[in-house]
Design goal:
Blueprint lengths: L6 H4 L4 E7 L4 H9 L4 H4 L8 E4 L5 H9 L5 E2 L9 E3 L12 E3 L4 H7 L3 E5 L21 E3 L11 H14 L7 E7 L21 H22 L5 E6 L5 E2 L5 E2 L5 H4 E9 L5 E3 L1
Helix pairs in contact: 6-7
Length: 279
């Protein structure tokens, strides 16, 4: 389990990065890390392993509403577990001395109040800003980005998202702190096109899901480099929920199944392009 950092010391001194690997299954993430198939992610995992946690929701919208309120995936062990961020409310059992406590109802507006530029680079449909529902989550941020190249149907979605993140960082005054949120769509269905030889007709599978994670790993180093290019960056990389590929007859998510509720999680400090300090 990650050691609880003092977020009151980190907020204001570090840039902040939150990456949700939308739909990523815990078992697939652990398997690929153990097999050396995601080296760019694995080198940043504390102890070289993903932490096993439980998602706060079984689908994207519910999970992200909770995450932006400070309810990150919960360690899969008896608690209570101190939270990194929490809105102030009486009787909270997960607010501790190192918790960054804010008066606003969500973390995004709280960080804006601390002088951060808050930026969302969306991925799946709940971030596309096209119907009103797709504008709710991006609307929390001062600046939000989405285009079809970032969406689930694009075979190059994450590379496009990283390129936009690099532009965001490059365009920000050096003294301005940044909270960047990236919702990675590549793992979400459809993902068959990430596995050579797979076909649209055969559809998605656990193997194509794994291939999508390998694709993400090939580009995530650029994101980490950009976010640590100006100052230390506190990073959280996790899944918002998993998904089923036929387990007990289930396909997809928004269901109460173990493969949906169990997610990978990691937090660490990027101290610069060449160094990293675990948090």
């Amino acid at each position: 389990m990650n050691q609880q950092p003092d977020m009151n010391a980190i907020v204001g001194s570090h840039d902040l990065l939150l990456v949700t690997l939308d739909t990523l299954r815990y078992d697939v993430a652990v398997e690929l890390a153990a097999e050396g198939r995601i080296p760019n992610l694995a080198r940043h995992l504390p102890g070289g392993v993903w932490e096993r946690r439980h998602a706060p929701g079984s689908f994207t919208y519910a999970s992200h509403q909770a995450i932006f309120a400070g309810f990150l995936p919960t360690p899969a062990a008896p608690g209570p577990h101190p939270r990194l961020f929490a809105a102030r409310f009486a009787g909270s059992e997960s607010t501790a001395g190192g918790t960054f406590v804010h008066e606003t109802p969500d973390l995004v507006s709280a960080l804006a109040g601390e002088g951060y530029r808050t930026v969302c680079i969306g991925g799946v449909g709940f971030f596309d800003k096209q119907p009103p529902l797709g504008a709710v989550l991006p609307g929390l941020f001062q600046e939000s980005h989405w285009e079809p190249a970032f969406g689930v149907a694009s075979p190059t979605s994450f590379a496009s998202q990283v390129a936009r993140a690099e532009e965001v960082v490059a365009g920000l005054p050096h003294g301005r702190r940044l909270f960047l949120f990236v919702n990675v769509s590549a793992l979400h269905q459809p993902n068959w096109f990430h596995l050579p030889g797979a076909t649209r007709e055969a559809g998605d599978s656990r193997a194509t899901h794994a291939a999508a994670l390998e694709y993400v790993d090939r580009h995530i180093g650029r994101l980490f480099a950009a976010m640590s290019s100006r100052r230390p960056c506190f990073a959280i990389v996790c899944s918002d929920h998993g998904t089923a590929y036929g387990e007990d007859g289930h396909t997809g998510h928004r269901i109460g199944h173990e493969v949906v509720w169990t997610v990978p999680y990691a937090q660490f400090v990027l101290a610069g392009p060449e160094r990293e300090v675990q948090a």
